[in-house]
Structures are given as C-alpha cells and as structure tokens.
Amino acid sequence: MITDKGSPFNSKGFDDYCTEENIQNLQIPTGVPRGNGQVERIHRTLIPVLTTLSIDDPTKWYKFVDRLQRILNSTPNRSTKWSPFEILTGVTMRNKKDLYLRILLMEEMVEELQEQRNQLRQDAKRNIQKIQAENKRTYDRKRKKAPGYRLID
C-alpha cells in the first residue's frame, strides 16, 4: 500500500493492523503528486462529478459520495479488465437492493472463493503489467537519448 506521511497513516494502531494483515506500507512525502498519482487522478474525476451532482446545493456534496463510490468500485478498469469490487471479492457487484450478493457470499465455499479471487488478482496483475509495458513503450518512443559526456582533464 502506498500512503503519504499524514497522521492517519503514522499511528501505532495502523502499523499494528498492517503488520497483522501482512500489508507492506510504503510512505511517500506529503504533497508530492507524482508519488500518489493514481489517487490524484481519481480526485480529478471525483471532484467535478460531485460538483455536478450537488449543483442544487453545493454544501450537500457528501450525500453523493456513497453512490459515486459504489459506481467506481463496480466499474471495470481499463488495465485490469475487472472492477475493483470483483478483484477484491471474486464476484460481480450487484446493486444495493439486491440481496443475492449477500446470500452468494455466505453460501460460497471459502476455498473456491479464494481460488477464484486469487486467479482474478493474478490476471489483473498481468493486465496491469501489460498496460505498464505499453505505456513505457509509448513514453520511450518520445524520449530522446541522453547526450554522452567526456571527462576533460
């Protein structure tokens, strides 16, 4: 997990949780957008959408966060080809009124769910690596070779 050095991520309780769950927490300096570019990118999407949804009363933007979060978590990602919810749980997200998901999760055998989830995560990782390689090729095509320097006496 990549976090900045903000106070929520520096508490002993958070460190204990990360250790207990075997989560490696990499901390970047606060206020460095290139270190947490994925978060900054999603914020560039969220803020205008929340502004549009709360146009009638801008002070009530928070009422739309849960719905927007549900939509983002259930939307397939270009890199992974699956939604974040599906990668996390191993099943496709249903709408909040659909109780089928709760029944499905309770009835699903733990081993089968873990195998499916692990396979999805491996596939998602391969897709991410594929997109990263594609992005690198695109970047490298535009990149100029650094000039060579000689040591002068």
Walk me through this protein's architecture:
This protein is mostly helical. Helices cover 54% and strands 4% of the residues. It contains 6 helices and 2 strands; from the N terminus they run E-H-E-H-H-H-H-H. The chain has helices spanning 12-20, 37-53, 65-74, 84-89, 100-107, 110-142; strands at residues 2-4, 26-28. A two-stranded parallel ribbon has the order 1-2. The longest helix is centred in the last third of the chain and has 33 residues, at 110-142. The radius of gyration is 21 Å and the shape is extended. The termini are far apart. The model has no long low-confidence stretch (mean pLDDT 81).
What's the SSE blueprint?
Blueprint: E1 2-4, H1 12-20, E2 26-28, H2 37-53, H3 65-74, H4 84-89, H5 100-107, H6 110-142
Parallel strand pairs: 1-2
In quaternary terms, these chains amount to single chain
Widest beta sheet: strand line-up: 1-2
Helix content: 40-55%
Describe the main β-sheet briefly: 2 strands, parallel
Are there runs of 5+ residues with pLDDT below 50, and where? none
Strand content: under 5%
Mean pLDDT: 81
Sheet/helix structural class? mainly alpha
Straight-line distance between termini: 48 Å
Number of strands: 2
Overall geometry comes to: extended
Series of secondary-structure elements, N-terminal to C-terminal: EHEHHHHH
| Total helical segments | 6
Radius of gyration computed on alpha carbons = 21 Å
